[in-house]
Write a structure and sequence with these properties.
heterodimer; A: mainly beta; 6-stranded mixed beta sheet; 5-stranded antiparallel beta sheet; B: mainly beta; 7-stranded mixed beta sheet; 4-stranded antiparallel beta sheet
């Protein structure tokens, strides 16, 4: 069963504009959410995380929003840069467990 | 501080063979998790090792097994390889036994013919 879903396989935005990547989950026990970025031939790189006790977390150009009632989280990148072009994975876990579930990824392309 | 490293980078095996993949965790990290990433999908959790003991397992058959050594490095062993085992195998390390951010290695690309 796919407990974490990223319904957009790809997203293309212009440099300088906002990129919004979306993620939905079904397991209400998830209490820790992460975004990873992956370049070709590299492992996923941790980007930003959020605990279920918060609804927003910012780190520079990256902000993650969590809507627990809708079981939805999103990653905002402002302003987008060509170097942000990569596959972005949403992940979720129950912190007392070790089974981190990933979405299928969204390929972001930022055009100069 | 060195990051997570994995070996080999690529591997080709035939159906029915056995394979061992290796992972060195990031300095100071005592927990290692293994993931399988099939083409076009996100990583799927195989299992985690904490202080040399299995500490959680995903939905993978027993022919997927692992070890963690006293220096926290780890091995993933897969017996009786099947064509569907072809994937990128990722290792991730973290500081504690669960619930903290995991840091990934570059992966081992396994092809089963």
């Amino acid at each position: 069963d796919q407990q974490v879903k990223q319904n957009s396989p790809s997203l293309s935005v212009q440099e300088g504009r906002i990129s919004i990547l979306n993620c939905d989950y079904t397991n209400s026990m998830f209490d820790y959410f992460l975004w990873y970025k992956k370049y070709p031939a590299e492992g996923p790189t941790f980007l930003i995380s959020i605990s279920s006790i918060k609804d927003k977390n910012e780190d520079g150009r990256f902000t993650v929003f969590l809507n627990k009632s809708a079981k939805h989280l999103s990653l905002h990148i402002v302003p987008s840069q060509p170097g942000d072009s990569a596959v972005y994975f949403c992940a979720a876990s129950v912190r007392v467990n070790n089974d981190m579930r990933f979405g299928a990824g969204t390929r972001l392309t930022v055009k100069p | 501080e060195t990051g997570v490293t994995q070996s080999p980078t690529h591997l080709i095996k035939t159906r029915g063979q056995q394979v061992t993949l290796r992972c060195s965790s990031q300095s100071g990290h005592n927990t290692v998790s293994w993931y399988q990433q099939a083409l076009g999908q996100g990583p799927q959790f195989i299992f985690q090792y904490y202080r040399e003991e299995e500490n959680g397992r995903g939905n993978f058959p027993p022919r997927f097994s692992g070890l963690q050594f006293p220096n926290y490095s780890s091995e993933l062993n897969v017996n009786a390889l099947e064509l569907d085992d072809s994937a990128l195998y990722l290792c991730a390390s973290q500081i504690s036994g669960g619930g903290d951010t995991q840091y990934f290695g570059p992966g081992t690309r396994l092809t089963v013919l």
